[in-house]
Every structure is written in structure tokens, then in C-alpha cells.
Design a protein that fits this description.
TIM Barrel; alpha/beta; five-stranded parallel beta sheet; about 240 residues; 11 helices; binds zinc ion
Length: about 240
Amino acid sequence: MIAFTCDVDWAPEEVIEDTLNLFEVFGVKCTFFSTHHSINLTKSNKKLFEIGIHPDFTPLLGNNSSKSLEDILDEIIDIHPDAIGVRTHTMVQSIALLQKFAEKKMLYEANSFMPYQTGLKPFRLWNNLVRIPYNWEDDVHWAYGYSFDDSRINLDSDDLIVFDFHPIHIFLNTENKFRYNEAKKYYDDPKKLQEYKNTDLPGTRDLLMNLLKQIKSSNIQTHKMKDIAYSTLQDMFL
Ligand SMILES: [Zn+2]
């Protein structure tokens, strides 16, 4: 089972639209974990796209947050009241958060990152939340120093495969942290961001395009995260 996910991370509209267009062109499903209101996400094709939430709890770690855990969670749920999946920004995790997610009627969480591992399995937590691990992330691929000409994930396997992309890295075709560090000064200025696009080496966009082409040409099914969560619960009760 293959699922694509994107952590929106406050990307501007043009950048979100660019990512949506790529998945739409190839007819590949993707779950977006959203950080804020986006008109492009809201009007996106729900046959292909699921919207989950991507709350940022990092202010709570500094003990100087003016907001509570619940405020942060409610803010993004108010924007996406139909969301039933969550991945937190920078993968902040705790028992208290997991309990809160269950209270707020989340069906699954996707915070457990196991880079390049095979044999991933979703499973049910004590509070009925389904945990769906993931095994590929764009910025971690360059943290390992890996080239973007190869995802190092075998799409032909029967295992669960969950990719995590960031629209900003798809837009910039990011291949290393240096490019991103330079570009991010202009995070909200897509025109200026254009000047920072990587055209020298294989990057995030090239890798995604190769995956999308392979999926289309081999007619591989893709899944929304919520469908993986539902089928996990069904299998358990059969
Ligand atoms: Zn994030």
C-alpha cells in the first residue's frame, strides 16, 4: 500500500497549488497535513486529496507559549472541521497529545517516522487512534546525504510505504539544506523563490515526478491515509 503525504508548513498559495497540480495531473492520491487556511486546499479535488491537520506544538516546549495545547489544536480543527488525521509539525509527540487527538475525534496519527524501513504496519493505540508510521521524508533524504535520483524505496513491494513531502521543497526542487536556508528568507514571495529553484542536480521535485510517472505507468494504486486507517480498524474487528 502506497500513500503520499505533504506537510504544508505554511506554504503560500502558489506553492500549494503547484503541488496539487502535480498530483492532479498524474491522478495520484495525497493527504495534506495543513497548517493554515488555504483556498487551494479547500477547493481541491476530494476524490484525490484528503486534508488532515499539522498543528505546531513547538511553542509549548519553550514554556513561553501564550496558547495552550488545546488552543493550538482547536485553531487548526476550526479551519478543517472534517479532518480526522494528524501529523504534528516537527513530530512533537506525547501521551497527553495522543489523548487529546482521540478526544477531538481524530481517527489516526502519522508521527512515527522510520526512515527507509520495510515491513511498516499501521496499528491501533490504547485510545483507538490508529498509528500510521511513515518511511520517507524529503528533508531527511538530504540529511542522510542521499542523492535525489533514487528514493531508496522499492515501490514493487507489498509493504506499507508512506512518503512525506513539503510543497516548498517540491517547488524549489530542493536537494540540500543550503539551498533551502537561502531560499527561506523569501518563503512568502513565490516570485522571488523562483530564482532559488534547483536546476543543477536531481532534487525533491525530480524525485517526486519520477515516482508519479512510475506509479502511473505501472498502474499502482495509491491510498489516502484515512483509508489506511479505516482498513486497519476493519481488519482488527473481522
Ligand atoms: Zn511541518
